[in-house]
Structure formats: structure tokens, C-alpha cells
Design a protein that fits this description.
By secondary structure, this protein is an alpha+beta fold. It contains four helices and nine strands. It folds into two domains: 120 residues, Beta Barrel (Small Protein B, Chain: A); 31 residues.
Length: 162
């Protein structure tokens, strides 16, 4: 019997939609997060904002910076600071590879999404290059032309050709 797959969004906790608009994503990596106290419960409740976040590599460790995780409502004193830096759990080779790319090629590490995998919270980070304004305009034009082509082909399948 085939294993049923869960819908794509079911395990998604937070997504940085602006990252794919602002950056050209060259590679993606999955990292664990070192969380404390009630942060997991808050994340499961949808209390994260990745929009302003970025990843920095310092002293051979990767850190998630400027990411807001809302304090857990029933957490009282156990809550952590919402925008504290959080250590990312990556293999040393991955950290060295990413550090080299960031230093030598001037790329950026941006958080793309937070999701659950095997009941553990994972962060997908992207090795990215910033887009210029004309790149964004070109991407919008391509998306619009692709959408229009899909509409035309859908009308042709239905037999609604003008």
C-alpha cells in the first residue's frame, strides 16, 4: 500500500515570501535550530516572522539573526527574548562551504522557511545573490507572460477560443 503524502503546507510553520522576490536563490540548505524553552510551542502556533532575518557565520558557527519568534502566551517567565540570535545546526563542512561563498563571492544567506521534519523544527536557508530592480521587473514580466499563456491554453482545452 502506498504511503500517503501530507499536503505541502501542513508542516510549514513560517515562510519568507519576500526572499524569493528580493534575491536569486542559488542553493538551499536545511539546518536545525537550537531553540530554548517555549519557543517551540510558539512556533507551532505560527508565531514567527522571517522577513527581516539573515544568517551570519561567526567563529565557525552559523547564527540566525533578526528573526522574530513571538513569546508564548502561557510562557510567563520562561519566554525568551523574541529577536535573540539562534544557533543553526549544520555540519562543519557545510558551514565552511557557506562561509567561503559568502566571503569570496559576496553572496548572502537568507532564511526561506521554517518547517517540521520528523517532529523537529528545521530552517531552510538559501545562498542568494541580491536582485537588481531590472531583475525584479523581468521576473514579473515572465510570470505575467506565463500566466497569460496558461490562460490561453486552458481556454483552448475547454473550447472557449475566441
Amino acid at each position: 500500500m502506498a504511503v500517503k503524502k501530507k499536503p505541502l503546507g501542513e508542516n510549514m510553520l513560517a515562510r519568507n515570501r519576500a526572499a524569493r522576490h528580493e534575491y536569486e536563490i542559488l542553493e538551499t540548505f536545511e539546518a536545525g535550530l537550537e531553540l530554548q524553552g517555549t519557543e517551540v510551542k510558539s512556533l507551532r502556533g505560527g508565531g514567527a516572522n522571517l522577513r527581516e532575518g539573515y544568517v551570519r557565520i561567526e567563529n565557525g558557527q552559523a547564527w540566525l539573526m533578526q528573526t522574530h519568534i513571538r513569546p508564548y502566551e502561557q510562557g510567563n517567565r520562561a519566554n525568551q527574548e523574541p529577536e535573540r540570535r539562534r544557533r543553526l545546526l549544520l555540519h562543519r563542512r557545510e558551514i565552511e562551504y557557506l562561509d567561503g561563498k559568502v566571503r569570496l563571492q559576496g553572496l548572502t544567506l537568507v532564511p526561506l522557511d521554517l518547517h517540521l521534519r520528523n517532529n523537529r523544527i528545521k530552517l531552510e536557508i538559501g545562498l542568494a545573490r541580491g536582485k537588481k530592480l531590472w531583475d525584479k521587473r523581468q521576473a514579473i514580466a515572465e510570470r505575467d507572460s506565463r500566466r497569460e499563456a496558461d490562460r490561453v491554453s486552458a481556454r483552448a482545452r475547454r473550447g472557449d477560443v475566441d
